[in-house]
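User:
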Amino acid sequence: MSTGPNPTNAALRHVLGHLLTPLLMCLGMGLAYLGAFHAPQPHDLRVDVVGSGPATQVLAQTLHDKADGALDVRTVPDRATAADALLHQDSYGAYIPGDHPELLVASASSDTSAMAVEKVFTEVAAGQDAPLKVTDLAPTAPGDPTGQGVFFLLVAVSIGAYASVAVIGAAGAALPLRIRGLLAVGTALVVSLIGTLFAGPVFHLVDHGLAGVWALSWLYAAGILLIGVGLHTYLRRWTTLGVMVLFVMLNFTSSGGIYRPELQPGFFGSLHAFWNGAGLVEGIRSHVYFDGHALGGHLLVLTLWLLAGIALVTLAGRTEAARNAAALEAETKEETKEETKKEERSEEAKEEMEEEMGEAIAV
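Assistant: Predicted structure:
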């Protein structure tokens, strides 16, 4: 005798199906973070040697050859040229040889890159039996001694944005998409304001330019939220995984907040050129520490991601309208079908009644 489907087995299959998402997150996070951060090694890291004589040329060539691709060593004629390259983020260290050697760095560009350069030239100075003086031309704010505060600001704003996607997509599923889109824009405003408070008054990660930090954070958060809301129309319960792949796994690892592309594997370094996390991190660095140099490019990256979110929400709106129209049409057809059946049953009942009345009259 059949007892029907076992409810325990059905519930177990349901749980296992939903466990697939966190397990894929675990796999993706491990591959992304360990792949990007586990063994940072410099490659083509631009450094300058200051001077123009034969000794300078020999030193630069020797360093370049010994580095075997780790360093891109060039010579510049004077200290001012070297400083200008550092402040335009064209190089990450400048060595001035002599009896009292000096190394110029800009730690606000990347503290880890500055440390890598300092390690190289400390050994060079030690080989000349001279102590190395290190001069930081662009130090970070006092509240950000490691230079990685901007990265953790990125993490906070990202989590606020992509976690809100799940809420708007699930709890707001019954709302029209235009309202969900407005909720996304409003949520981005709140998230960016919270991030700006963290960056300024709370932790003093930056000591000026908070209005620009807020504007960059809003552009970034709005792009994530709109893309996530648009994706929910297509991915449904897989939206969380999709958003985490885009804005955590690939985003944090390519942002340059911990290691710049010159210290990372090529895949993550290549993403740095156009991913939105890099746009936020490098945009804030440019705005706060480098007088807005190259800020336009970073703004363009963030704006393009925002436009992609707007386009995706627009497309999702059309998709949902088409789905609703199809569902309404199917419902109308079903109702028409039911009405037709009722009419047919009514006709049959009428015919049966007429037959019965005819038989009664005949009797």
